[in-house]
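Retro notes, item 3 of 5
We never archived the inputs for the uridine-diphosphate-N-acetylglucosamine complex last cycle. Fixing that now. Sequence and ligand:
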Amino acid sequence: MIHKKVTLVSSPLLVALLWQFRDEPLAACTCISGLAGLATWCVVPGAVSIFKRAGLSGADLAKPNQPVLAESMGVVAAMIYLVATFLFIPAQFRKWWSTQEQTELDMTLNSFVFPYDRLGEYLSALLSLQSMVFLGFADDVLDLRWRFKLILPTIASVPILIVYYIGYGVTHVVVPVFMRSWLDAHIVDLGMLYYVYIGMMAVFCTNAINILAGINGVEVGQSIVIALSIIAKDIAYIISGNPDGEYYHLFTLYLLLPFVAVSCALYYWNVYPARVFVGDTYCYFSGMTFAVCGILGHFSKTLMLLFIPQIFNFVYSAPQIFGLVPCPRHRLPKMVVGSPLSRKTVARLQQEIDAENSGAASDASSDGGSATGDASNPSILSDKISSDHHGTLFTLHKSISTAMTSFAKAKANKPKRSNSTLRRSRSQSLRASGSSPNAGIYMVASRTSLEGAKPLGLLIIKLYEHIGIADIERDDQGNIMTVNNLTLLNLVLVLCHRLTESQLNNRILLIQVLNSVLAFFIRYRLSHLFYF
Ligand code: UD1
Ligand code: MG
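Structure as it came back at the time:
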């Protein structure tokens, strides 16, 4: 087992490095994070049977045989994270007490007074995170109602809100340039509203990750990308050598380095084909980690920019979440067993076939031989493709089928290959295209019936269709019947037609990475247009 071997070799090394750098909090934090990551990597597979025995399991709905996997494995990662952050407390504050011992005479100087405020901030962050992990686990075990999912993060964010209030109490916001003439002010004090805003941010972050979920790896993957983006921002700031606000960047790093470490280890077990599920515990834990960093690290606006895909997913989902359109218990994409031909491949094949066909047309017309083999059998391909209810693709397929029949006729004179040669060439081409032998299993957008949808819901769905972000199915009379479930995952499938589960996960992560680039562009290149 690779994880055990790597852990055996690298953990003594990390412990030695930790001892060496015990007076350097950032280096110590990196070593502790590495150890936490290794621990998660090793503990998760060991915990599978324990969780299953306790009834914490769920069916992997996007697989043909729907295997039952251990659920809520996020709690293992979160617990190891909390242990790592607790153990980091002495390393973080060591330099103050060792300095105090050495320079008793300097005790009166402010610079040597123990930073209780920083310790308070760090502890309140851990308290909020711990509460959220506990509440997330309760949700996994008890399957709480949605109203509790909104209330619980608000309660868990109280410790950080109090620390924020006592520590800074800054509730002023700089008014964007274009609003200054309306408000006749440069700065506005939001007072209590500011606390409502940051409290809502905690609720949003925790639930936003949870509703952009449902395929292997996506909850953890998006969290890793967001966390790495924030880490990159903090490191860039620290390297720039600007001492102003360096503490806040370090504070964020101390929370995010162990988070990334445990998340990467969890991702290893949760990515396609998943061996475990992370559960709501991980989604809440992850969302709260970002909220805590954004609030106490003073970068809530940048954090919201990094959450644009989640914000889009929430706004797009709103008609279902707020009951304007029926919302099934699960909105994750639907698994289909189908042709490995994607819409793009079909279009490319059509071009190739047309080109070859035009050359072979004269031969074919004089040839009375029958078409043989799967690829040349229009009815088989037709069954596979029409199962998607995609009218355009079906029409395209019909024309391809006709072309393929003539193409097969033209090829009929060529010597036939044996079955084993065919199998070999298929697996070679699969390897060449990077697909697995399970490449016939795809995800398509899942749909929901619009029976019982409210008039406002139907209006929004039509608007979505108008701007090309919804796939509506109509009956023969043109009445609206169904729509794709309103999630970003399904929307990507509406636009890309069909993808394997791992391709879909990779697309979502790519969107998240591109969004981070966009977020930093807005933050560091465009913000001066709004605030100068
Ligand atoms: C949220 C979504 C729901 C989505 C679900 C998937 C909303 C309002 N709710 O609900 O639409 O279906 O997350 O997590 O958007 N599962 C898989 N494969 C995966 C991950 C999960 O099949 O890769 C299934 C498993 O059966 C697992 C279950 O989803 O047991 C977990 O669902 P849960 O987290 O309880 O759903 P919610 O968070 O309530
Ligand atoms: Mg969930």
